[in-house]
């Protein structure tokens, strides 16, 4: 029997508000433990939460960008459980009346656009962090993160492969970064993801027993864990076993999932409406105002690049996949007449170097204006395209003005016909065989001779002139 | 002149004229405490040193422009006071010193009030007799073999015994009105949202409300003036204009329409309590009001719905006491779960555990709809009863409690019977309405009061009618014998 994989994702995203969701404490990451805490976020006896309007605004912004319907009426509920990182022993979250529902994200898979449904998006508070020290008989609690606003985005079980899940996650991250509500740094915990995966006989409508996987530390881990789990479940099913409905943990080092707890041990969170917070009545006008603050989103931007800049779909996808990347590109295009040439450089040279160094576009030291200056140096014949690549590398490493690089390294193109003629004569002298070949009709030999001229001049000879001069000399 | 016997407004006049100082007044109250506290046991913590220091500070400023300036107040021990132990009369918070002030305390301090101490209560405000304190029971100043009522029993007893000039209590199901009634003082439960709950250690958040316990109605208006108002720290606090409640202190009930719900006057209510209500009605009619029997048909369900909703919220509110960050932690434990279990087993008393278990059960998967959700529906029906009544009537008159103060120990083994003592006050909390308890007579040397229930934010009317009644029945200077 063949099986179909069914995947759904629950993504928690920390919002970039300056203060926490139910008190005024700072949300800044990486500060000394327990320095960003007040009686409210510590859950001291008698304190009360007050909702941070900015957090609601960011959540609405995210919901709109994910094509969700915003609820006019929603409320906060308490999710009760005991854990030392949860000071009140309940998390303020949203249960049956989330802020937003029924959205979607579009991904491209095998050249087709696929829509992945979003079941719900709600606002909640983050928990603290436990610090376990090796060999110590105790754990310490850091409550700086307590009360940082989170949105939870629950997808529909619409993904059919680890690849789709990976694309969905990337798209989600891109959108959230575009609208600047989160930095989505998985390594800092500002984006966390739990996945649900089940297999069912192909064509079946009924869902199979699902497994939830936690402890996923990177996008790659998500993909690997899903691939592993898909295989594990398929093997179980083909061998006639059943999949146990449970929560599993991803073991990054061993590349496997291991059992964490079964359904029987699942929590009863005893949700009920938080009596300390009045229900949220979301004003439609406010939603409309927030809508106007949404920037151009990646899909629209991509379409515009294809339409206005004449970029191929692939280029447009890559460039718009990160807001900073697109911003860099657009700044260049603003200063340069040919978007396609910019794209060529960005796609090959810039992306190549970034990948090679494992860097993000934000870390690039040179300015778009200098990059465009370099392109203009090619256009006005100061340097050749080939030399430009070296100049570019230098710019990438040092952030220097390309004109300075050209001057310092003496890379100015030779446009003096006489000088080139001298070199060409020398090349003809030294390559009699190739000259013969050319004269007997082998066009390739001409290219070789031009190449020799370039070599002699360390690439500085203007290629058009070299061509012209060589042709004259060879009659 | 016994300074400790003064009301706020009397003391204020003397302070303003410079005839007494705040320090004299405070000392008088401290001496009174020293003299009678053994008999009453109203206080968990006496803030003697600080109080004297504060009174001196107020004397130095000579600023007695506000009513509460320089006047000693007792605070129920579930209202957080900066740097002053706040225990909720529970072992689990025995060592808890809040790092902040409740909003009401901030307001009192702005008015230069002198905090004389923290008063005993039923543990976490759960109870109707102040016998559930983890430390000791408080006794009724009128009869020390009887309870002062609960859960603000310490505050009510302290006011009745002149161990303070006035006090703050909290009322979740009658915890201000019922002890005020048993102790023969005035207790007001304001409209839900009228007074900020920030800093009130939560029992049942949707029902809790802080309010004054005072020697007379005038003081009640004065205290309400200074503690109420919208608070940015409490999102359930109401953004409504704040009246000057002292302007309602006039004798006038002409044309007032008063409903007396028959459901509050039936079985289980003692005859002397009923007759206090009926004679009050007569008195009101004599003064030009119109009284008639009304029906609030869902009253009988209110108590049972309350005992689902309040414990449900309590089970969640009290989950934070786990011995991890503050309060008392069990000494010996094996692991984290054991630490939680032992801390909570050792730290909470029987009544608190009973309600936590009730609430946990009512909220658990599979029972939520049958209990919590249904109780919320009953709550809506109870509210609707009141809404309907207030379309026709300005005020509702009823008993405060089924009987006068009962004997210490009389009901400790029968929690259900104990729960009944709040049967007349609970519906008011369910509906979020304001209500006041004022003494109107005595029965067997024990005070008997009546309850007046008002429209939401109708505290003004309550105070006006209470003031009129207070003047008419004139019990003002009758004091318990403690010397
Ligand atoms: Zn805080």
From TrEMBL, chain A:
Allows the formation of correctly charged Asn-tRNA(Asn) or Gln-tRNA(Gln) through the transamidation of misacylated Asp-tRNA(Asn) or Glu-tRNA(Gln) in organisms which lack either or both of asparaginyl-tRNA or glutaminyl-tRNA synthetases. The reaction takes place in the presence of glutamine and ATP through an activated phospho-Asp-tRNA(Asn) or phospho-Glu-tRNA(Gln). It catalyses: L-glutamyl-tRNA(Gln) + L-glutamine + ATP + H2O = L-glutaminyl-tRNA(Gln) + L-glutamate + ADP + phosphate + H(+); L-aspartyl-tRNA(Asn) + L-glutamine + ATP + H2O = L-asparaginyl-tRNA(Asn) + L-glutamate + ADP + phosphate + 2 H(+). Heterotrimer of A, B and C subunits. The keyword Metal-binding does not apply. The keyword Coiled coil does not apply. Belongs to the GatB/GatE family. GatB subfamily. It comes from Thermovenabulum gondwanense. One of its GO terms (biological process) is glutaminyl-tRNAGln biosynthesis via transamidation. This is Aspartyl/glutamyl-tRNA(Asn/Gln) amidotransferase subunit B. Pfam families: GatB_N, GatB_Yqey.
Automatic annotation (TrEMBL), chain B:
GO terms for biological process: translation. Keywords: ATP-binding, Ligase, Nucleotide-binding, Protein biosynthesis, Transferase. The active site is at 76 (charge relay system), 151 (charge relay system), 175 (acyl-ester intermediate). Allows the formation of correctly charged Gln-tRNA(Gln) through the transamidation of misacylated Glu-tRNA(Gln) in organisms which lack glutaminyl-tRNA synthetase. The reaction takes place in the presence of glutamine and ATP through an activated gamma-phospho-Glu-tRNA(Gln). Heterotrimer of A, B and C subunits. NCBIfam families: gatA. Belongs to the amidase family. GatA subfamily. This is Glutamyl-tRNA(Gln) amidotransferase subunit A. It comes from Thermovenabulum gondwanense.
């Amino acid at each position: 029997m063949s099986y179909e994989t069914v995947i759904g994702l629950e993504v928690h995203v920390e919002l970039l508000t300056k203060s926490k969701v139910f008190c005024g404490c700072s949300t800044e990451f990486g500060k000394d433990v327990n320095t960003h805490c007040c009686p409210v976020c510590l859950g001291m006896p008698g304190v009360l939460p007050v909702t941070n309007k900015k957090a609601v605004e960011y959540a609405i912004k995210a919901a709109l960008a994910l094509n969700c319907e915003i609820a006019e009426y929603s409320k906060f509920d308490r999710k009760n459980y005991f854990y030392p990182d949860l000071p009140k022993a309940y998390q303020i979250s949203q249960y049956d009346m989330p802020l937003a529902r029924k959205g979607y994200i579009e991904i491209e898979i095998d050249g087709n656009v696929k829509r992945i449904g979003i079941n719900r998006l709600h606002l909640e508070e983050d928990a603290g962090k436990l610090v376990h020290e090796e060999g110590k008989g105790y754990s310490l609690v850091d409550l700086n993160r307590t009360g940082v606003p989170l949105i939870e985005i629950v997808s529909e079980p619409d993904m059919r492969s680890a690849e789709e899940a990976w694309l969905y996650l990337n798209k989600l991250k891109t959108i959230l970064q575009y609208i600047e509500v989160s930095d989505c740094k998985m390594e800092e915990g500002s984006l966390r993801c739990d996945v649900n995966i089940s297999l069912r006989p192909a064509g079946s409508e009924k869902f199979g027993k699902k497994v939830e996987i936690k402890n996923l530390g990177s996008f790659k881990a998500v993909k690997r864990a899903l691939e592993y789990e898909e295989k594990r479940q398929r093997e179980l099913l083909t061998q006639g076993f059943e999949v146990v409905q449970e929560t599993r943990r991803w073991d990054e080092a061993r590349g496997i999932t291991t059992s964490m707890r079964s359904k029987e041990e699942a929590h009863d969170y005893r949700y009920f409406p938080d009596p300390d917070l009045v229900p949220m009545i979301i004003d439609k006008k406010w939603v409309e105002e927030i809508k106007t603050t949404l920037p151009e989103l990646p899909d629209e931007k991509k379409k515009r690049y294809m339409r206005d800049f004449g970029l191929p779909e692939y280029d447009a996808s890559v460039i718009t996949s990160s807001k900073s990347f697109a911003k860099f590109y657009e700044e260049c295009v603003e200063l340069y007449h040919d978007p396609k040439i910019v794209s060529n450089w960005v796609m090959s040279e810039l992306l190549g170097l970034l990948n090679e160094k494992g860097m993000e576009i934000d870390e690039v030291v040179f300015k778009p204006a200098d990059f465009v200056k370099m392109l203009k140096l090619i256009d006005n014949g100061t340097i050749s395209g080939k030399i430009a690549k070296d100049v570019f590398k230098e710019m990438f490493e040092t952030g220097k003005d390309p004109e300075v690089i050209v001057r310092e390294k003496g890379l100015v193109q030779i446009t003096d016909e006489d000088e080139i003629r001298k070199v060409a004569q020398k090349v003809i002298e030294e390559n009699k065989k190739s000259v013969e070949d050319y004269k007997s009709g082998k066009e390739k030999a001409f290219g070789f001779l031009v190449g020799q001229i370039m070599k002699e001049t360390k690439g500085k000879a203007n290629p058009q002139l070299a061509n012209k001069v060589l042709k004259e000399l060879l009659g | 002149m016994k300074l400790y016997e003064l009301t706020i407004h009397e003391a204020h006049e003397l302070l303003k004229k410079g005839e007494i100082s705040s320090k004299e007044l405070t000392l008088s109250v401290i001496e009174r405490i020293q003299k009678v506290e053994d008999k009453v046991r109203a206080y968990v913590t006496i803030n003697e040193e600080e109080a004297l220091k504060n009174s001196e500070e107020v004397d130095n400023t000579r600023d007695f422009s506000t009513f509460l300036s320089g006047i000693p107040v007792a605070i129920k021990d579930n209202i957080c006071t900066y740097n002053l132990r706040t225990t909720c009369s529970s072992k689990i918070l025995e060592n808890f010193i809040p790092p902040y002030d409740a909003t009401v305390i901030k307001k009192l301090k702005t008015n230069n009030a002198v905090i004389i101490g923290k008063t005993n209560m039923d543990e976490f405000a759960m109870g109707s007799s102040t016998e559930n304190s983890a430390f000791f029971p408080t006794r009724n100043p009128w009869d020390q073999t009887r309870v002062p009522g609960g859960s603000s029993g310490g505050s009510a007893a302290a006011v009745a015994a002149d161990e303070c000039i006035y006090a703050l209590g909290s009322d979740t199901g009658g915890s201000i009105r019922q002890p005020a009634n048993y102790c023969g003082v005035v207790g007001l439960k304001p409209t839900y949202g009228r007074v900020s709950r920030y800093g009130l250690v939560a029992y049942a958040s949707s029902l809790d409300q802080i309010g004054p316990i005072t020697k007379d109605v005038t003081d009640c208006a004065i205290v309400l003036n200074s503690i109420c108002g919208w608070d940015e720290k409490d999102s359930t606090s109401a953004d409504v204009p704040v009246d000057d409640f002292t302007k309602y202190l006039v004798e006038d009930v002409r044309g007032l329409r008063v409903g007396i719900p028959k459901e509050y006057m039936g079985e289980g209510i003692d005859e002397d309590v009923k007759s206090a209500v009926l004679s009050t009605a007569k008195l009101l009619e004599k003064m030009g009001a119109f009284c008639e029997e009304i029906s609030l048909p869902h009253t009988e369900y209110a108590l049972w719905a309350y005992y689902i909703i309040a414990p449900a919220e309590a089970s969640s509110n009290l989950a934070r006491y786990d011995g991890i960050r503050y309060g008392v932690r069990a000494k010996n434990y094996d692991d984290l779960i054991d630490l939680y279990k032992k801390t909570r087993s050792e730290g909470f008393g029987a009544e608190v555990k009973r309600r936590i278990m009730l609430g946990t059960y009512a909220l658990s998967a599979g029972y939520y709809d049958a209990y919590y959700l249904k109780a919320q529906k009953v709550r809506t029906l109870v509210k609707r009863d009141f809404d309907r009544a207030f379309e026709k009537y300005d005020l509702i008159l009823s008993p405060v409690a089924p009987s006068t103060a009962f004997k210490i120990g009389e009901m400790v083994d029968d929690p259900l019977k104990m729960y009944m003592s709040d049967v007349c006050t609970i519906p008011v909390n369910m509906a979020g309405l304001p209500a006041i308890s004022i003494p109107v007579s005595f029965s067997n040397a024990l005070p008997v009061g009546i309850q007046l229930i008002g429209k939401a934010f109708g505290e003004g009317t309550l105070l006006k009618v209470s003031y009129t009644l207070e003047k008419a029945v004139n019990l003002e200077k009758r004091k318990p014998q403690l010397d």
